[in-house]
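This protein record is not my work; I was only asked to verify it. The record follows directly below this note.
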Amino acid sequence: MLTPLPTAVPRLLDVVLDCRRYPDGDMAYAASLLDSLDASELAQLRRTTTLSHVARAPAFRCVSCNGPLLVRTDSVRSCRELGGRRARFYHARNSRAVGCLFNTEEGMTPDAINARQFEGRQEGVRHEALKKGLVDALYRDVEVISVAAEQPVIADRRFRRPDVLAMLASGDRIAFEVQLASPQMATIVGRAQFYADARVALLWVMDKTQLDASLPLQGFQDVYWPQGGAVFAIDDEALAESKCAGALRLHQVTVTQIDNRLEWSSELVGLDAVRTFLGLDVPDRHPSIAVDPLARVMLDALARGDSRAAGAAFTLLVQSCGADLSWHDAQQDGFDRIVPVLVTLLTGRKAAPSGYANDAAAAILNSALEAPSLRDWSRVVAVVGNSTVEAAGRMARRSTWSKVSRNLRVIGRAPQRADALEQRWRPVLRRLFPQLPD
């Protein structure tokens, strides 16, 4: 077990503005925000602050220059600590830090850090061997119809070359990233954003022989804790089992924090477990609703009533759409409430906490249509309702259609807010409901 240091790491920024509830922020001590966090909570906070910064709605700002702040950690080895006592706030690169009394900005970009980390080498011998073995294992699997290494994936005039790209018989695509060096947070967020935008599932794969050394590294913690403490790994045993079975076999690793130490266990699993992990086996998947991991995280959080988790996913989702919107905007406009209603309209099932039964679609729709704060979304409801035969049937019920018609007449007399909502949220709605017309 690690023995914690008697004090937290030195922090130049010991007081910050916490802007998670209010844009202007509340003053808070860094120690009160960070010291009590366990390893999982620390990784979640690091990701949330990064996503918020990318979305130009920083979660934390400097009390002196008002510039955006991110969360950095000292190593577990040097601090003998897994949780937030080894974390500190620092100025985001290219922020207002220049000239700030508390400037903590570091000059290296994520790309420069990666270049130094890999010393100019894109891949090592071990990485190449594991990647080749993964291609061979997927090639033998009857559920895989195509597989290639370094095949470009293109999305919105950008492209990436995942280590391995596989197309399943279901039509789903999975990008396998074999990661042997601890990744930067910018890399993690960037890949998640890109593949979500490209409608490709992303699976991080570690080297099982190096787990004891790799799992404590913050970059890997930033991968597996937001995934519920789960990650996949590959080694010679998995490759041998894949060859014997004629199908993909990977180690599914589960990590837990016990006091101040990490423990992990693993089991060999096949492609079915990978599909389940990525949400590709969801039985009620609907063709009109996005099912990539990022969209699922947001929709699942809304279904649970977890506003914080929904907001964290939302910040990355809107960035992938090129939209300049915040979670505060979503709550002000009622976007966070209308999206579950649209899901209910398409699926016939409850998609947010309420007193209604799971299959009480008509009651849920009617309640939303009666709400004055959601009335200006009625044109969107009508468009979604006409996008499938099943949704049209639900909307055509007399009690529902009478409310839709009434709201449309009201909007026709004063369309300004409805027009603004539709223009503002069209990219995000198209992202969540890909079959909507342009």
In short: Residues 111-116 have pLDDT under 50 and may be disordered.
